[in-house]
Amino acid sequence: MTCMQDLIPRSCRGRTLIALLTLCLLGMPAAAAVLETTYMGRITALDPLSGTITIRAESQYSCDYSGSVAVCSFAPITPMQVVGTVSDEGIFNTFRNNDPVVATILGASGGEWAGFALVAPVPGTDQWAATEVFGDPHTIPVNLAGNYEMDYSTTPDCSACTGSVCKAQSAHVVLKSEGNIVLERSLTAGNSARYSGRNDGSSVSILYLSGEADSGPCSPAGAMAGMQPISNFIIHVVPPIGQAGTPGIVTHPTAAGIEPKVTPLATPAATQAPSGCALVVTAFCIVAVGLRRRFS
Fold first, then answer.
1. Is 87 exposed, middle or buried (0-12, 13-18, 19+ CB in 10 A)?
2. Does residue 30 lie in a domain region?
3. Which of 120, 159, 254, 295 could in theory staple to 73 by disulfide, Cβ–Cβ 3.0 to 4.6 A?
4. Span 274-296, mean pLDDT?
5. Mind listing the pLDDT tens digit for each residue in 252-282?
């Protein structure tokens, strides 16, 4: 029996929709990882109404693999305006126009800021360190102020996965001070941790908002290609007494051996002109892809 809109009940049309969506999902290639590009520059516009921040990017982070060890650094570029959306409106209470920042955009200008950090010069060096971080600290290739370092890993919720990414059950946070672990904590969304054990007036506060994890541990086949997991934190650092961060002239620090923060795009599959049937399936594919949202 053929389902025709004018002759067949709505239930048949519903089954047709499900079948078309199934064909679409089976035929779709895995989503490619989203390109991450990291810039250093200064804020030129904050727009809370549209949820966007614009920076004047003056240098870009990249790595050289020609030697035995990767050498990563910020290199000057022709200044350009880069705008991105932010997921936490609290960022507008922290940043101001002309603040020096290191920020990573997903895709290109107009995409989402995966990580956004207020930076200040490290006394006695040409390096910069972060005093405020919003978003994913893994996308910010500078240390925290006060010679602190923060790393994290996430545990997937295997009942909430989409392709290569799952919602995270928790984040395991490790904070180091001058290379030594001083705090290690498992945080669920909305929980925080704080360290102030040094005698120099410094402290680090870490708030875990939400996160994603790789779906590999949830699949018998292991890790699969696709979008990279992104997590959201708010990190606030009070630098040691006498080392309070102050805006300075943006220079271009280098850092040997830092892992690259740019994930290359997968090679796109060749496309063909759609047939009449394919046009119908494609329409439903667009709807299906539109339903995919990041976990928050």
1. middle
2. no
3. 254
4. 39
5. 444 333 344 433 333 333 333 344 444 333 3
Residue-range definition of the domain harbouring residue 152: 36-256
C-alpha count within 13 angstroms, C-beta hemisphere, residue 270: 1
19 inside domain: no
Residue 190 corresponds to which tokens in the numbers above?
């909305």
Q: Is residue 17 part of a domain?
A: no
**Buried-state track 143-180, b at ≥16 Cβ within 10 A, e below 16:** bbbbbbbbebbbbbbeebbbebbbbbbbbebebbbeee
β-pairing verdict for 180-187 and 100-106: unpaired
For residue 132, list its beta bridge partners: 118, 236
Q: What are the tens digits of pLDDT across the range 97-120?
A: 999 999 999 999 999 999 999 999
Predicted confidence at residue 124, as pLDDT, reads 83
Q: For 29-46, how does the pLDDT look when each residue is reduced to its tens digit (9 = 90+)?
A: 445 678 999 999 999 999
Contacts of 131 (CB under 8 A, 6+ apart): 118, 119, 120, 144, 145, 236, 237, 239, 245
Query: Is 279 part of a structural domain of the chain?
Result: no
